[in-house]
Every structure is written in C-alpha cells, then in structure tokens.
Amino acid sequence: MIETNLDSVAQQSAFRHIHPGTKLILALGSLIICLISPSPVVPLISGIVLSLVLIIPGRISPLLYGELLLGPAIFAIMSVVVLLFMLGGGDVIWRFNPVPWIDLSITTGSISRSTLVLCRVFGCSISLFFIALTTPMTDLFNGMKRIGIPIELIDLMMIIYRYIFIVYAQAVEIWQAQVMRLGYSRPREAIRSLSLLCGMLFISSWIAGEDLIHAMDCRCYDGIFPSLDSAEPVQIQSLIPVMLYLAALSGILLVITTRVVIFS
Amino acid sequence: MSIILETRDIRYRYPGGQEAIKGISFHMRRGEKIALVGPNGAGKSTLLQMFNGMIRPTSGTMLFDNEPIRYDTPSLRQLRKRVGYVLQNADRQIIAPTVYQDVAFGPANLRYDEQAIRQAVALALRQVGLEGFERRPPHHLSGGEKKRVAIAGVLAMDPDVLVFDEPTSGLDPSGSEDLMELLDELNHDGKTIVISTHDVELAYPWAERAILLTDGQIIREDVPDVAFGNTKYVRMAHLSVPTLLELSVELGKRGFAIPERKPRTVLDMVHIIENHLSKPYAHTAPGTITVCNVDEGETSSLPAWVKARPGIIVGAMGTRAKQCAVQEQIALEFTYGVIDKCILRVLRGQDSLILTTGSMVSRVAVRVEAYCKESGNTINVASLNTTNQPPVPGLTKEEVKKNDPSC
Fold first, then answer.
1. Is A8 close to B140, i.e. CB distance below 8 A?
2. pLDDT band at residue B345 under the 50/70/90 scheme
3. Which residue of A has its CA nearest to B110?
4. Inter-chain contact B97–A166, Cβ cutoff 8 Å?
5. Which residues does chain B have within 8 Å of residue A210's beta carbon, measured at their own beta carbons?
6. Is the pLDDT of residue A67 over 70?
7. Cα distance from A28 to chain B (closest Cα, Å)?
8. Which fold has domain B288-403?
9. CA atoms A81, A82, A88, A92: torsion sign
10. pLDDT score recorded for residue B151
11. Contact call for residues B218 and B212 (beta carbons, < 8 A)
12. Is the domain defined by B3-241 classed in CATH 3.40.1160.10?
C-alpha cells in the first residue's frame, strides 16, 4: 500500500531532479491563471497540457493518474449538478416542476457558469496534482527553510514525515492480524477491533518516541537536524519552457478576456 | 594491543528492582572482534548500552581508554562519538526523512562545518556501499539497505568502537553474510567491533573472542572453539554447539586427527577429512589465485581478462569490489567467505580471481599462506595489475616451502 502513495509516485517521477522551485512556479502559475480566467477554455487547456506533460515525459502511469483524478472528478461533478439548478440568468432551457412548491430549472446562464466552475476545478486540481506527483516532501523542506518557516516547525515536520510511514506500516500489520482472526466480521467486533488497534498504535508510537530520543542521543543530538544537501541548481533548460508555457497561457487568457469584453 | 574498554564488576538494577547485570568484569582490546552470545533476556542489550553511556551501571566502574567514564553531558558526547551504537531495529535508528540527512545527523550535531559533513557522509556511504542513495527516503529501502544506512550514520562520526545489537536480525541469509563481511572490512580498517547475537553459527567463525552471557553474568569467555566447545556452558546459555565444531568432535571420536585449532570453516573441515583419507588434495595440479585490487588503475579491462580465461571463478571481497563487479558486469561466484571458497576451488585445479580493495589485498596472501603452512599444499597467488602488466607472483612455491619446514 505504501508503494502507491503520492509521495512514492513523486519519488519515481521523471521530473524528480528538476529544481522544486521551477516546478512550483509552473504549478502555482497555472493555478493562478486558471483561477482568474473568466473563460473555461484557459483552465481546460492548462489541465490538458499539464496532464499530457505528466503522462508522456513524466512517465506517470495513465491508469494511476486516471484513478487519482476520479476522486476530485466525482466531487466536482456532484457540485456542478447542484450549481446547474442553483444558478440562474439567461433563458430557461429545461424546467422540472413536479410539485407546485419545487421549481427546478436550468438556464443558459447556469450552464455557462457551471462549465466555468467545472473547468476551473479541473485546471486547478491538475496544477496541484502536478506538484504532488513530481515533488516529494523531502524536496520541499529545503524550500520551506528558505522562505522563513521556523526551523523548529520544519524539524517537527521532518520527524512526522519519517514516522508516518512507520506508524502506517504498523497499523496495516495490526489490522491484517485482526482481519485474519475475523476481527471485523460483525459491527460490534469491528468497533472493538478498531479501538484495540488505536490503543496498540498509541502504545507503539509512545515506544517509538522513546526509541527516537534514544537513537538521537546515541548520535550526540545537540539540537541540530541536518537539512538535505542543496538540490540541483535551477536549470535554464527547464525554467525557460516553464516560462514560455506560462506566457502562452497568459496570452490566451488575455486574448479571450479582451474578446469577452469586446463582445459583451 | 592496548585495552580500549573495560568493565570492573559492574551491576545494573532496573528501576523495577530486578537485577539485569550481576557483576561483569571484562575488557576489550583495540581492533578486536568480540561476540557477546547469550539467550534472550540474558542482559546483552543492557550491557551493550552501557558501552556508550546510554545506561549507567548501578555499581562498578566502566573505563574507556583507561579513563573512568563520566556521565556529564560533554563527556557523554565525547564517548558517544567514539563508541558507535547500531540498534537492532534499523527503523528505530533512522531518524531523518532522507538517507543523506540521517547519515549527516551525527556530524551535524558534532558541529562539523558544511564541507566536513558532506565529506563524512560521502565517506560513510561509500564504506557501506550506498553511494547514490542520498536522496532516497528510508521507507523505500530494503531491510539490508536500512541496516547499512544505520551503520553509515554511526560510521560518519568515525568511532573507534562499533557496537552492534543483533546485527543480522531481520536479514536474509545472504544479507547476513554480506553484513558480517562488512563488519570484517570495518575491523580491517582498525575498528574494534562488538556484536551481540544468539546465532552461534554466525558468531563462531567470525569472532576472535566469544563471551557467553546468561542471566546477567559471564559464564565463559574464550576463543570461539573453546567457548562453544564446552557443552555444559553452551547448554547453560541456552545455545547450541556450532555444527562444524560438533562434527569435528564426533570425527575426533572416530579416530580422525583433529588439529589443535578447531575447524572454523568448511575448508578446515575438508582438510581434516581429506587428511584422514590420506588422499592429498592435488590429484590435479592446483590452480592459481589471482588477486586484483580494484582501487588501483583501470578496471575496464577486467571483463576482457575474465573472458579470456573461461572457467575462471570470480569472487569479490569488500563493498567497493562488489560494486566494481556490478559496474563491469562480471558475474560473481562468491560474495562472502571468498578466500576459503576460492582455495577450495583452486585445490580442484580451477583458477580463481579475487576482486578486492586496498587494505584487504594482503589478507588473501596471509590466509593462503596460513593454509599452505597447515596443509602442506602449494597454492600460487598472483596479483593482477589492472593496468594490464604481466601478473607478478605474490607467493611462489619456493616461498611457501621456505616458510613451511614440513614441505
């Protein structure tokens, strides 16, 4: 199970060795452009382009990528269906009036605004996925230090990050042991088993914490948590395409906005 | 050899009141390989943790470098820098989210500067054969790799003594053998090594001195064949007699001539049996052992050299030699117990090549010489200079004969 989490995918990404700053510029840049775009075309283009980049040169399995997108997609579609009926404006296209006090209608205005929301969600989530799928947490710690997040907080984050995987692996082990002995076969037992699992995890985390202090003492801990050797420098050959892409996206945005203004 | 660590009648009582260590006195000399053997709950871990001051004995004296250990923070830091402790569970020892950060943990806390930290980490990772793993998170590593990261983390502080609590627990058999070989390599670089284990088969051929511990007391302390040879003590310590030792005792009862130095390897055992059957080894003329130091010169000509000698057996000794073999795509027959296994093959008339590194080169000649002396056989050791000069004989028949009056 640990093999398929986002962080592991990021560790194996083909873009792993590009400077995290470059990747952040690309992801945050397209996120902002998607958010401010008044037209659904720009987020749509951004989403499609970033997806293609992730799948083709990024070598992310399309199957895994599809699975990942399914979550936000289901959520977005459900919300958009509600928005379709909630928003108004323009001509009524379809009306559903089962009983006198319920009046559901879809108008041209609600369609165009829901489409915009849907496309924005699509574009923005893919921008975020781009970061999640190409930049492992370990690469972000250095950046956090540079932008002035307190070092104590980062040290804590690093230890927590390290222990998430240990505690998770332990939870899976206990859970499997319980399932093997039919611990979740009936609701009553399931509740009991889950409470036992939580208790066991608490105790083992406590012991792990004591061992952590022990291990740190063994290596002369004196308040210093070393940071990762500085990453590869910002490479022009990766930064330039990112800049060009963002410029192109802003260009499209500008053209569409002016046209929208002119036509309206 | 000078004494580096000494305990004088130390005792330790748990806060609960149970006495875990009941008066232990022993010493450790610089450069020794010691195995602390005993059943679960014998107090092995407790004793080991006293070596780097993690546990303070209730009474008795601990000496490091002939000075009593002091338990104030600066002295403890100094002690822990010099006595490295590798925990049984590597997952518990690896603290940081990446390999680099974890190995850098010790040096950073010893206030090395950035450059020195980088150097220490690079050297430690090189010693354990994990170059290129710097940015990997620990949960992506195998059990053996994690163990190596844990060892690198300790090596980065350049300790004099390395303490291993159950070093091979959780490793597969070949991983265990690899690890024991790494310990040998470190020992060869001058580190004093103490391990705790209940695996007698592992401790028997490896250790220079075995200490049987049970119920918080030392019941026997001697060279492994004596310590493990006494069935009474072995039974007291809930252990078993190593197979080779048991076999040699049984063969001795059946009239085989068992040398004073009990067999510690398969090679020794084969020698005893063949001697008894009074068949000399060399039905065919023995082959030659060629030693190649991969640290010197170019290794790219090696594959061609090996290819030109079909049927040659190749073994690699030491981490860097193994890496070199992988890099040059040379198939390795042996990766542990290399010298003995090569001698066994050479005696059957096959040639063999041992890839190894700087400090270990001399070990081959020493071991072969010792074997020749004991067995009266003659084996040629040649050194292969990778710059493709003609091989220079290391130990010729004449030299062996000169050393061995029985020849």
1. yes
2. confident
3. A220
4. no
5. none
6. yes
7. 25
8. Cobalt-precorrin-4 Transmethylase; domain 1 (3.40.1010)
9. positive
10. 93
11. yes
12. no
CB contact under 8 Å between A217 and B80, yes or no, is yes
A59 within 8 A of A15, measured Cβ to Cβ: no
- Closest-CA distance, B118 to chain A, in angstroms, reads 8
List the end-to-end C-alpha distance of chain B, in Å, as a whole number. Answer: 33
C-alpha dist (Å) from residue B246 to A18, A151, A235, B265: 60, 59, 65, 13
Composition of chain B by helix, strand, coil, percent to 5: 40, 20, 35
Q: What ipTM was estimated for this complex?
A: 0.76
Separation between Cα atoms, residue A240 and residue B264, nearest integer Å: 65
Is a pLDDT exceeding 90 seen at residue A110? Answer: no
Residue A29: the pLDDT is: 93
For residue B402, CA distances in Å to B291, B369, B395 come to: 22, 11, 11
> How many residues belong to chain B?
407
- At residue B385 the predicted structure's pLDDT band, cuts being 50, 70 and 90, is low
Q: Which residue of A has its CA nearest to B99?
A: A228
In 3D space, the residue among B383, B325, B313, B386 whose CA is nearest the CA of residue B353 turns out to be B313
> What type of residue sits at position A209?
G
Q: pLDDT tens digits, residue range B261-293? A: 888 888 888 888 888 887 555 557 788 888 888
Mutate to test the interface with B, among A154, A158, A206, A219 (most CBs of B within 10 A): A219
